[in-house]
Amino acid sequence: MRTWIHLLLVLLQVALALAADPSHLVQGLPGQPEVGFKQYAGQIEINATAGRALFYWFFEADHPNASSLPLVLWLTGGPGCSSIGAGALGETGPFSTNDSGTGLVRNPYSWNKAVNLICLEIPYNTGFSYTNLLSDGGNYTDDQTASDTLLFLLEFLTKFPEYKQNDFFIAGESFAGHYIPTLASQIISHNEQNGNRINLKGFAIGNPSTDVDYDGPGNIENLYSHSIISEELYQEEKTYCRRNDDESIARCRNVTSQIQNLIAYITPYNIYAPACNLLSGPDDEACLDSVTPYLNRQDVQAALHVERRPVRWQFCNPDVDRNYSTLDRERSMLPVYQHLFKSGLRIWIYSGDLDAVVSTLSTRSWIKALNLTVVTPWYGWNYTNQVGGWTEVYSEMTFATVRGAGHQPPFDKPGESLTLFQHFIEGKALPSF
Question: For the whole model, what pTM was predicted?
Answer without folding.
Answer: 0.92
